[in-house]
Amino acid sequence: MSFVATLTAGLSNPARFMGVSRWLAPAFGVVAAVSILAGLWTGFSAPDDYQQGATVRIMFIHVPAAIMSMTAYACLAGTSFFGLVFRHALADAAAKAAAPLGAAFTALALVTGSLWGRPMWGTWWVWDARLTSELVLLLLYLGYMALYAALDDEQKAARAAAILALVGVVNLPIIHFSVVWWNSLHQGETIFAAGGSKASAVYLLPLGLMFLGYFSLFAALWLVRTRTEVWRRKAAAQALRAAR
Amino acid sequence: MDPLHVGKYGAYIVPAYGISVVVLIGLVIQTLLAARAARRRAEGDKEREP
Q1: N vs C: which end of chain A shows fewer Cβ within 10 Å?
Q2: Can you give the pTM of this predicted structure?
């Protein structure tokens, strides 16, 4: 069995998940701290861009936040699928735990993008396909959390929220290909462009480090929040048993 | 004095990093506090509740 298959099988069992995540979460936390500090150091040591000037430094936090906003949604949708189809309680817990993190990364992508756009484009916001679809992603996260909170029955809430999450998956390719499908003020594909990255080599190291840092931070927080959800459900079950 | 080499764009770069730091550190603190509280409740240790 491959490493990923072994890890997935291990993490799908709640007891094993609690055992593995106990050391995996701090390990991701350490990687996140080291990568972000190194990314900040290399980012602020990098030369100004010939077009963007010093504002290129905003890209080192904007691009990783934007990528993580979609990565977190893919995790949310994937675990929602498992929760919905296989009625897996741990998958429901993981989906619920991913939503606030994804919403935070999406909000950061929008705010940092706006702070870059003002000096470069001359405006804080345009109803551009990329920006609008990213805003829709934030609304999907908020809708998911609101729907979960609105229903008292946890299983019904998980099911309804999972359906919303799966419907929202259609937005991910729209975000990614928006700069290809429509004329956009937002720059075209740069990092994952066909034929290789179009970003200057000097910026790839800080971008890569910051992305590794953001990804590891998300992984660490996702694991801890899923553990929190497991403990919360355990406490609720204990309280219910005690009340009988 | 421009230790961060942000030049005339400091008014945009500093808030972008500042907001990111506040949000990410806030997420870490909120996540850890919620985990600690949930763990204590699950273990039934009501005395140590804040």
Answers
A1: C
A2: 0.90
CA–CA separation, A184 and A147 (whole Å): 32
Which of A45, A115, A211, A218 minimizes the C-alpha distance to B19? A115
pLDDT value at position A68?
97
**In b/e form, how buried is each residue of B2-26, taking b as 16+ CB within 10 angstroms?**
eeeebeebeebbeebbebbeebbee
Asked whether the beta carbons of A73 and A140 are under 8 A apart, the reply is yes
Q: Do A116 and B28 touch (CB under 8 A)?
A: no
Winning range, highest mean pLDDT, from A51-65, A117-131, A224-238, B18-32? B18-32
Tokens of A165: 């999450």
Where helices occur in chain A by DSSP H, the ranges are: 3-11, 14-45, 56-86, 89-121, 129-150, 154-168, 171-181, 201-243
CB A231 within 8 A of CB A90: no
A118/B38 Cβ within 8 A: no
In the block, tokens 């998911």 appear at: A144
Taking CA atoms, what residue in B is nearest to A213?
A: B24
The amino acid present at B38, given as its one-letter code, is A
**CB spacing of B20 vs A227 below 8 angstroms:** no
Kindly tell me the burial class for residue B49, based on how many C-beta atoms sit within 10 Å of its own C-beta (0-12, 13-18, 19 or more): exposed
Record the tokens describing residue A90, joined without a space.
């741990």
**To probe the interface with B, which of A30, A44, A45 has the most B CB atoms within 10 Å?**
A44
Shortest Cα–Cα distance, B48 to chain A (Å): 15
